[in-house]
Amino acid sequence: MRDFLQILLVGIGDGAVYAMLGLGLVVIYRSTGLLNFAQGEMAMFSTFIVWTMWSLGLPMWLAILGGMAGGFCVGALVHQVAVRPVGDPHEKPLAVVIVTIGLFLGLNGAAQLIWGTLDRSMPPLFGRGQVTVFGVAVAWQKIGAVIVLGVMVLLFYLLFQHTKLGLAMRAVASNSESASLVGIPVPRLLMLGWGLAAAVGTVAGVFIAPNLGLGTNLMQLTLIFGFAAITLGGFDSLVGAVVGGFVVGALSSVMPRYITIFEKMPLAPAFILILAVLLFRPEGLFGKKQVTRV
Amino acid sequence: MSATATTGASAHRSPGDWALKVAPWVVLFVILAIVPFQFPSFRVEQFCFWMTLAIAACGLNLLTGYNGQISVGHGALFGIGAYTTGILITEFGVPLFGATVASAVLCFATGILIGLPALRIKGLYLALVTLAVATLFPLLLEQFSAITGGSGGLQITSPQLYRGEMRERPIRLESPVAGLENDQWKYFVFLGITVVIFILSRNLIKSRVGRSLVAVRDNEVAAESSGIPVSQVKIVTFGLSAAIAGIGGSLFALDQGQLYPSSFTIVLSIYILVAVVVGGAASIIGPAIGAVFYGLFSDVIVQQMPDRIQPARAVILGVLLILLMLLAPGGIVGGFRTLQAKWSARRSSALNSGPDPIV
Amino acid sequence: MKKTSVQVSAALLLGFALIGGACGGRDDSSSSESTETTASDSTEAAFIDPAADCTDYKGTQGVTGDTIKIGTVRPESGSYAIYDNVTKGLEAYFKSANAAGGLPAADGKKYQVELIKKNDEYDPAKTPALVKQLVEEDGVFALVGNIGTETNKSVRDYLNENCVPNIALATGSTQWGDANAYPWYISGLPSYATEANAWISYLEEVNPTAKIALLYQDDDFGQSYKAAIEKAIEGTKITLVGEEGFNPLAGSTTEASVAKLSQSGADTFIVGVGGTACPLTLSFVPTTWTPMTMISVTCASKTALALAGGKDEGVYMAQPTLDPADPADQTNPKVVEFATQGAAAGLDEAQIQGGIASVGWGFGSMFALGLKNATTVDRAAVMNALYSLKDTTFGLIRDEVTVNTDGAKDPWAIEGFRIVQRENGAWVEKAPVTNEEGKSNSFAGQ
């Protein structure tokens, strides 16, 4: 029982990070209606920005803010230059998939060009310390991840529910045509959404990098966990991303330890989730039902 | 001569035009025939690899280009073909190309299986699922390392006479033609298979079945109401596409003689997709052009660059993909067609406006 | 229509193949510059006899005038790029030797080394094309210091069939013990099985009823440890109470595995993983679990342990070489030579102290030893020299470690370890070097 708890706690901590990545994916899905396959690479890129600032001697929290700002610019730029000109993702899905894959390759290559190919090491934000609760050791880093996630969700809630900007963004998400009719600057808000998503990804990267090592392949598998989280939670639901993140984190930590067939595939439970949810409940746990346009 | 060649539709069948149409193919075939004699054997093996990629891209093109179902996971099907071939040869002593046929059949069945959920999961969501499949596939190979060899690789061997005794040795395609070395023989066998597959898929696209593929892509509801069995068409297309990708994978196995999970990561799936898009989705020859373009780019040009700036390869590919989508969604073939159309429009307008045609 | 177009193009293809064959010839540039030699004229029956074993033997390919072309394949990018430092050390060795006039050979000449590097990203799927390019296009004499087990395995048949030496493999997989079948390969590291055996021998001494929790990398490297440990504890009171495989490609950390092992009741923790996953594993050990921890030699460099977040204090390892970062070793002439000449050849302080470049330096020195001992400058002669080393040393091998090889009977050069414990960034000796001459292959488990 205690070993189960110990492993479950590892999974909950990982889940918080998947949820952070998921939040970014949800924000982009809500604003532009697309699944951003380059989200992981955007997060990797801005995590490298954090690393650069930190290794230049800035305190970690300042480096993270800098990285988020950098990530915001990358996200906004990417939207303006590549995503917006392609058009509606549900009318031209192939073109959009190709563009996000192009971004994936481009950002990955650019990071390798700028920062080289050696894995960098980054210190954990909350140190390597642990606390013992009921005989089970929990790393401060894990507790920190859950708290930071909580703060992020709160900020998003305040933004979307209690600010004019958030209201406008929600209007764009629900119907961009009528939003632009009432004078909301739709393209600028979409750009904002992309920037925001990339900034959020930075935080996910900052939590993953100390354990996986900061390399350009930091996010390639983690992204699938993030997608599993939002598929389960519902592509357009922030709460869903959080719940989904925890479920995916717990499953992918526990199942490989107890079920032989998953031993070398922590990704498999996430994949099964994606497939099952899309087949039987495409709107996920908390999402709105999609009406397919003909 | 110039006057007859440009005076309208009847001139199309004139021997001069026919020669113009055939000439590029003749040139292409001559080049393809000379190539293996001009390069060392490791290069020829690389050319064989490009052909396997072209075959897989041809399969993906049927599905994505003509039928509108997006797959970012064809690398996994390619991998299933490769591993089926490897295991059948090594464990069961199946003859080399017999294993290719079996791989195609198995991949067809797998394609059908994937095609079923794809009826419900469409567009971006299908891309997500296939992306997850592509990411999961190498891990599956690790999980079932008892059959696949895992990260230690699968050595494809057959019992051969070596130093006077029968031993398990790496497979090889022994050249039966004097004067052709083994790798050159392999090249021509592969080239033959590649050409046949491209011709067969061309014939398929030009047939009634092919037209229904396109009709389903363009508008499912309209296709349904004009009597096309949409579901069957989509499922069978998935099966066919998977079978062709499986043949590509099978040839890859025969080319390499050993298989590692690292060959079948998401990167492979992306490159197959790149070959389709760069060459030109929904054009027959496009995927082949894309595959050769990709091969030249990554195996020859990039290798010449200093190590430090080699990651530029990914940047160039990424930017190229985005530019293609924004400026020339038809890829190389599409761009060429547009140019051709512009040129013939200019030519006909020149004909109408004045007596001095540009030829 | 369908059939005919297929038939026509098949016929065309065949026709063109014949035309192509007639009008173009393959230039065989690599063989033109090499002279065919029949056999090395050694007096004893040599281990390798190219006249009997090689069909198209090119014994001096890559040797022109007083230059020798050497190839090496390593990960310059990708997650294992940290091992690129091995190649930096190798390069520094050759640079330093070139500056000093070249590597001496038996023919009295000194040879300048031209090193051609290829980047395979530690990916065995990429290695064959690059190695073939090195052999067929660049025309190298030999490969030295190739990094990785699977990568080296992927070209083993090719190199042995073509009689191309692959010297000082940067891997200790037990597979390299099969010198009978693959005489053109010789490892530059001790066998992983011998290392595992050293751990268990020490445990038998200090904790004969040890309960081991094993974390192993689930590939040839980690499985070598696992199999050797299982074999070594047979007939002892030591038991394996928990084991977890780690797949470095699965996109997860070892954290959950460590969490499970921490609850297994073990008093000994063996970390059979490499790369950055190894020091991170140490950092994941919960404070509620305080086992005696043994780490792989591949993890023991200063560079790697810096990532352990301080949890490297107190860990044990089996150590065959000198550590340039260990104050106790820094006065050793081998370390002094490496530090001064390496710095002159362009290695920076971090690389010199890092403990990875010094391994590559050793590989260069192993090749130099082979060239010096060879009867002639010839591929087979160099291999035969390396397979008949007598009480010698090279690189940064500890002085107490004896280096002997004897063909297939004893293909391992380094077979001695001492046991050390980490204290304040240095290593404290816990058990002196035990040389297991000629026994390495017997330690390999199944």
Q: How is this structure best described in words?
A:
- Chain C: Pfam families: Peripla_BP_6.
- Chain C: Residues 24-45 are annotated as: Disordered.
- The complex is a heterotrimer of chains A (294), B (359) and C (446).
- Chain A is mainly α and 294 residues long.
- Helix content of chain A is 72%, strand content 3%.
- Chain A has one domain (2-216).
- Chain A has a two-stranded antiparallel sheet.
- Chain B has two domains: 9-38, no CATH class; 39-264, no CATH class.
- Chain B has helices spanning 2-5, 15-38, 41-66, 74-92, 96-118, 123-143, 145-148, 182-206, 208-218, 220-225, 230-256, 266-279, 286-304, 312-327, 331-353, and strands at residues 154-155, 157-162, 165-170, 258-259.
- In chain B, a hairpin with a 2-residue loop joins strand 2 (157-162) and strand 3 (165-170).
- Chain C is of the alpha/beta class.
- Chain C folds into two domains: 61-189 and 322-413, Response regulator (Rossmann fold, 3-Layer(aba) Sandwich), CATH 3.40.50.2300; 194-317, Rossmann fold (3-Layer(aba) Sandwich).
- In chain C, strand 11 (292-295), helix 12 (302-305) and strand 12 (316-319) form a beta-alpha-beta unit.
- Chain C is globular.
- The chains are: A mainly alpha (294), B mainly alpha (359), C alpha/beta (446).
- The interface between A and B is large, with 51 and 47 residues.
Keywords for this structure?
heterotrimer, A: mainly alpha, 11 helices, 2 strands, 72% helix, C: 446 residues, alpha/beta, Rossmann fold, 2 domains, 7-stranded mixed sheet, 14 strands
Q: How many E strands of chain B?
A: 4
Determine the mean pLDDT of chain A: 88
Strand % of chain B is under 5%
Count of separate DSSP helical elements of chain A: 11
General form of chain A: globular
**What is the CA-atom radius of gyration of chain B, in angstroms?**
22 Å
Indicate the percent of residues in helices of chain A: over 70%
How many strands, which pairing sense, and closed or not: the largest β-sheet of chain B? Answer: 2 strands, antiparallel
Distance between the termini of chain B: 10 Å
Structurally, the number of domains of chain A stands at 1
Number of helices of chain B: 15
- Sheet/helix structural class of chain A: mainly alpha
Q: Secondary-structure element sequence of chain B?
A: HHHHHHHEEEHHHHEHHHH
Biggest sheet descriptor of chain A: 2 strands, antiparallel
Report low-confidence residues of chain B grouped into runs of 5 or more: 1-11, 354-359
Total beta-strand segments of chain A: 2
Pfam family, one (chain B): BPD_transp_2
InterPro entries (chain B): ABC_transp_permease, LivM-like
Keywords (chain B): Cell membrane, Membrane, Transmembrane, Transmembrane helix
Transmembrane segments (chain B): 22-40, 47-66, 72-89, 96-118, 124-141, 187-205, 235-254, 266-294, 314-339
